[in-house]
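Ticket closed. Logging final result for ALOG domain-containing protein.
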Amino acid sequence: MEPAPGAPGGTGEGPSSSSDPADPGAASPPPPPPRQEQQQQQQPLSRYESQKRRDWHTFLQYLKNHKPPLTLARCSGAHVIEFLKYLDQFGKTKVHAAGCTFFGQPNPPAPCVCPLRQAWGSLDALIGRLRAAYEESGGRSESNPFAARPVRIYLREVRESQAKARGIPYEKKKRKRDPSAATDASASASSATVAEESSEAGGGSSASAPPAAGGTSSATSGSATSSAVGVRPDGSSSAS
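Final structure:
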C-alpha cells in the first residue's frame, strides 16, 4: 500500500498554507475603494471655481441656442455684449429711466415702473470669470472675446449710466493714510529740521569761538597777566 500524499515518508508535498483558500491566515489583497469614496476624497471646488463653471456652461448654452448658432471660435466682443444684454432680463437691480421722478435717488420712497437690470458689479465679475474660463479651455489670450475693447467700453458705460440713475457713484475707494504713520513722518521731518538748524548754529559759533588753549588767546592772556605782575630782580614776582 502506497503512503498517502503528504503523509510522513510519502513522496508527495503537502498543500501550502498560502494557497489554501480555507486557511484564515492566508493574505488577500484589499478590495478597491468604491467610486463614491474616491469622489469624496477629492478636494471640493471653491465657490469661485463652481460659479465659473456654471457661468461658462451658461455661455456655451447661449451660443448653442443663438440664431444662427455660434461656435466659440467665431465669438467676438459684439456677441459677448449681446450676451450681457440678454442677461438683463434676469436682473434684480432697479435702474431708473431718465424721465422717472426717482432718477438719481439712491433710496426712492415708492416703487416705480422702471425695469430691472443686471448690476454693473455683477456684470464686471461675470466677465472676469468668463475671461479666465476661456483661457483655461484652451483659448488664446490675444483672441479672448471677453477681454475685447468693446466689452470694456460697454461695462464702463453701464457703470456710468447706473451711477447716475441710482445716485450711487462707482468710485474706487482711496486708501486712508495711517494717522500714526503720518505723525511719525512729521516728527521725523521736524527732528531732521531741528538737527540741521543745530548743525548750522554750531558751525557759526565754532567760527567765532575762542581758540583752544595754547593759541593766540592764551598768548594774549599771558601778556595781560605779565603786565599785571611785576618781576623783581631776584626773580620773584609781585602783583602790582
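The domain at 45-166 is CATH 1.10.150 (DNA polymerase; domain 1). No further action required.
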